Amino acid sequence: MKVTVVTAFPDFLDSFARTSIVGRAVEKGLIDVEVVNLRDFAQGNYRQIDDYSFGGKGGMTLMPEVLERALHFVRGEGTKVLFPTPVGAVLTQDLVEALAREEHLAIFCGHYEGLDERFVEKYVDLEYSIGDYVLTGGEIPAMTLIDALSRLVPGVVGKELSVADDSFYNGMLDTPHFTRPAVWQGMEVPAELTSGDDAQIEKWRRRAAASRTLSRRPDLLGRANVMDYLEDEAYLGLSVDPNASGLAAELAQIAQTAKAYGLARVIAAPLNREDFDVLRGQLSEVPEIKCVPSVSRMAEWAARKKHGPLLVIAAETPSGLPWMEAKRQMVEASGPALILFGAVPAQGRVIAMRPQETPGGELPRTALISATLDRFFGSR
Q1: Which residue has the higher pLDDT, 82 or 248?
Q2: Residue list, annotated binding site for S-adenosyl-L-methionine
Q3: Strand ranges (DSSP E) for 53-90?
Q4: Quick one: a GO biological-process term for this protein (predicted)?
């Protein structure tokens, strides 16, 4: 990947491109960072690159003809032109990952009042911001983007898993980190991290990341797949009509969807032994389906599989909670989770969740289930 930064202050970027992880990546040829001096494209004795803004208010604005000459010099086939500005789209991990797929990024750093808007309208593909505040120029936002991009280039970061565990990469904040000594000023490193048990360590890290996200940035849950952050397994519960035509095909389709999203089992009720015998042959290729005679037995079966109280998310309650709050409470819970479509059992902690709303009318049940599971377990 190549990144070209056009700036009136190239020294600011030169040292950055030779330092730390980015510097090593440039040295190894894993990422190409080019710094171009905007003043090289100015004309006249004073090499003027800016002028007063029209309208009598504001400061200096970079001139469009100078910017255009610089662009013609740096732009090649497939170049995407960026402009860091407070009025741009907020730079998120999702946006960084999208930009990492580009062959060549050309970042034009503004100063004072920024770039002439006509140049922006004609040439700039994306305006981005690193936060709701104003900086002197675009150099720091340019360095921020380059640093974030470099971490996604294979071979730049020593351990690829450390990138996958970074904050925002999977929608959650990063887990806390500790080093020696194991006890400092009376504060001990969590025992799980010194246990030597990889499974126990991974479980602690996931729960710690979930807890940190819930307390500091619960808004991030909307884009997170929470499956890895649950303490126990998740199940899909269905109330069905044993006499309905096409029941086996519908159950098979739902089971396939549930499996794709990582749910442990589909539990259908009420289906007694006779009903199950009728369906057995048709469902023989779908072992993920469990048939029980009642919704109460469904809840009992799910609760027995793991330790901890059963959490039931009733997915079709008109007066229920928004799905984001149901998702937050699911991550907060410690026991198995049953996402239920149909009658609600008497036992277990029940969270009523309002159904999906679609402008075109009611969804078929298979589509409704898919959409609901995607909100909980889909990758952003």
Answers
A1: 82
A2: 110, 130-135
A3: 60-62, 79-90
A4: tRNA N1-guanine methylation
